[in-house]
Amino acid sequence: MVEPSTFAFNIMIRGYAESGLNHEAILLYIQMRCEGLEPDNFTYPFLLKACSDIKQGKGVHSLVVKNQDFQSEIHSLTCLITFYCSLGDIESARLLFDRMSERNVVTWTAMINGHVKQKSYKEGLELFSQMRNSGIEMNELTLVSVLSACASLGAIEMGKWVHEFIDRHCIFLNPKLGAAVIDMYGKCGNIEEASKVFKIVPQKSVCTWNSIIGGLAIHGCGEEALEMFSQMQTSGIKPDDITLIAVLSACAHSGLVEKGKEIFYKMRRDHKIEPNIKHYGCLVDLLCRAGLLDEVYEVMSNMPVEPNAVLWGSLLTACAAAGNANVELAETAMERLIKLEPSNDGNYVLMSNIYAAKGRWDDVAKMRRLMTHRQIVRNPGHSLIEIDNVVHEFMVGDGRHPYSKEIYSMLEDIATSLREEDYAAAISL
């Protein structure tokens, strides 16, 4: 082309970026500017696709800010938010989002999804509430992200509201949205409702089957999960690696040790799926729950990949739970955990408890000195409760909640009433 237009350059920049040729895409943008061509609404979003790190993305961001025509251009700014979220820079994304004078459903969804992917579920739901109050219509992707946050927090009231919204607005329950609703009910403790939704989803994909099998697994319905697994294959849906994780988890939660081992060791032959670290994690969990600690160590010693902290943590927990704790095996697990996650306070506490159960008080003191030396502080426990579609978080001794005084006053009243009841019961005896 003798005089390629901005449109032509945009197409080539996007083509290079989508082919993984990021450097060539950026050079093409430079060539375009050197030839005196001005970018349009699509140039910067396509250029962002070629950015592989935060520094490059911030470079594109600066170009958008310098160009008066794009400072408030919603498409380019939304793409920037999506870019920041995809690389985990939720703070930069939120800063840009808060400064935007205009936002559409894509902008709100990108920001909510960014929070959910970074496991900031509470913030994601708070943002969703703001979106609802602003009058912006929700799309399928918004609902999927919100349902995922509800599932992770156990916010079933909000999840029910989303499900009712889907029914009320006659939104088609496609496989992805159906799977999100099923997953939400399963993780929030209502497996019956999850099963009802599964039956009415018109088109069941692998993710739909995975959601119901996973829900049955966490409820300890191992036999039902295996039956679903069988129906899935009969219906012509090929299991994927997530399916096998759900099935193995079902076996672990239901004590189906031999069946779980059979499924794991036949994965390659029956389903052409190579076991990864998560599948080994399920097998280790299965064996740990059954108290087969020596077999667990054998599996971990012969794995084709190096066991991670989750696997060693499972073994340490199993050693602590065993009536006659295997201290040597626990020490082996602890030795690896100190290298993999040296600041995890829970591991030190578990090891200390194992020593205490054996009456090895010198080793208990040694473990506490090690925590002090490494400046490891025990993280306080916390709990969540959902009231009127708002998730409240509480920590031990926490006074940040706006109704802290009233809450502690009520707790004191309850404690006083309980003491009086105990006293009255003692007198009557």
From TrEMBL:
Molecular function per GO: mRNA binding
Q: Where are the PPR repeats?
A: 5-39, 104-138, 205-239
Q: Which domain of life is it from?
A: Eukaryota
Entry annotated with the keyword Protein transport:
no
Q: Which SUPFAM superfamilies match?
A: TPR-like
Name a biological process GO annotation.
RNA modification
Keywords of this protein's UniProt record, alphabetized? Repeat
**InterPro entries, A to Z:** E2_motif, E_motif, PPR_At4g14850-like_plant, PPR_rpt, TPR-like_helical_dom_sf
Family recorded in the similarity comment: Belongs to the PPR family. PCMP-H subfamily.
Q: What is this protein called?
A: Pentatricopeptide repeat-containing protein
Name its species: Acer saccharum
